[in-house]
Design a protein that fits this description.
Order of helices and strands: HEHHEEH
Shape: globular
Number of strands: 3
Number of helices: 4
Distance between the termini: 51 Å
Structural class: alpha+beta
Largest sheet: 3 strands, antiparallel
């Protein structure tokens, strides 16, 4: 199992959602639990699988209509590493006030495209 090189808030959210699930869960439930977009969650799931933190398999429920679901589940080492990583998560950082936006200054240059 490879360590996670870059731990982002999104990655921590995905790990937290997977830990909170009761067994294998599919990506859409992770998306709903984290509030993160699919374009963020699925690449994280793929990366975690490549690094050996989770495994995935296709749901084989033939009685369920709709597309097949890909189920994600922690490996034994992955669940321990995820718990350790989440336990070491720093407390919420204070929100830094954004810089006030300055009004744009008019210029006398012609607009070109």
């Amino acid at each position: 199992m490879e360590p996670i090189r870059r731990v982002t808030a999104s990655t921590l959210d995905v790990l937290d959602a997977l830990l909170a699930s009761d067994g294998p869960t599919w990506g859409l439930l992770v998306i709903k639990a984290t509030g993160r977009p699919a374009g963020t969650v699925y690449p994280i799931l793929e990366r975690l699988e490549r690094q050996g933190w989770i495994t995935s398999s296709w749901d084989d429920d033939a009685e369920r209509s709709g597309p097949r679901r890909r189920l994600y589940e922690f490996t034994a080492d992955g669940v321990r590493a995820a718990r350790d990583l989440l336990a070491a998560r720093p407390a919420e950082a204070p929100v830094r006030p954004s810089r006030p936006s300055r009004p744009s200054r008019p210029t006398n240059r012609p607009v070109t495209s």
